Amino acid sequence: MIWAASRVVTTTLVLLLARVQGANPWTAASPGYADFANIWDGRWYNIVAVAGYPSVLPVTIDGHVAENAWAFMPGYPAVVRLLMIVLDQPWAPMAVLVSLGFSLGSALLFYRLMLRVLDAPAALFAAVLFCVAPLSPILQFGYAESMYLFFLTLALLLLLERRYVLLFPVILVMAFTRPSGLAFALAMGLHLVQRWLGRQRDPFPVRERVVAASVAGFSAASGLAWPLIAWAATGSVTAYTDTELAWRSAYIGYQELVPFTAWFQSGVWWLGTPLGISVVVALIVGFTALLFSPPVRRLGVDLRFWLAAYGLYLLAVFFPQSSTFRLLMPLFPLLGAAAVPKNPVYRVALVLLAIAGQWGWLLLCWGVDGADWTPP
């Protein structure tokens, strides 16, 4: 019921924006819901679903690898394509249907996950925040986020329940839906160390050690699989990373991928020196402090391992710009910490702020104003 109510609110906001949307590279003016929900990267997923991936990388006029489909993993478009074939329907409505289905599953699993670390009322309110979060509109758009969050939430739930064997297929699908294998491998590695150090008070049998270590290795291999597949298909060892770097070239030009430099490059681009560097350092310190704050500590050590691992992954490879909001979505367990206070005024205000945030994000990142400045 919470999920359905939240979708009514979000759909209303999206339709209001669609009514005033002008003609753009993807749709005519005032598009219908399904068409409006499949602009921006939704078109790339559509291309993958119907045409696959290029065997020859496209290049710009100056010889650099251009933006292309290799940046978008096949899990989500494959599911939509299957539904297109079975139901004999076009991409746009089927993409919305798949995203909606996975968003419901994600909400239900997130509630189950929160019940592992919070009392029932707090877990339920955390699910409310998940459903109305500022970026929740993307859970019913032609993007892979809802499918990815479904499998990520399932993986985290299985980790907390220590059902390691079941993690293998979940990690595989997750890693081919959105880049995540390396971050989850780090979280599993931290989980292994924690269980090993605490084995005197919490037994860690040899069989569980072997299986858990195998899961960590499998997750790391899954995280590296897509770049290797891109290399095999195109003949370029850097096909995937060059493709990803093409998206930041509009900001800083074409550069090599040097881990842990992109946030500082972005800080300097947005704010200059030394303010940009100082802000990035402050963000790193602030996020680290957040992980040790009492509300976040209540989430338990394993969810905090994931938060730390994914935060470190973003710091290593991501160049912050307007899609940063979307890339932060896998940090959603933090909603559990925000759900702990029981003051009704606080909770109502938080929900209203989240819904206002939806409208703000739709205006800033989804609506097209003639300039490709803030892609979602």
TrEMBL record:
Residues 1-28 form the signal peptide. It comes from Cryobacterium mannosilyticum. InterPro entries: PIG-V/Gpi18. Pathway: Glycolipid biosynthesis; glycosylphosphatidylinositol-anchor biosynthesis. This is Glycosyltransferase RgtA/B/C/D-like domain-containing protein. It is found in: Endoplasmic reticulum membrane. Its main location: endoplasmic reticulum. One of its GO terms (cellular component) is membrane.
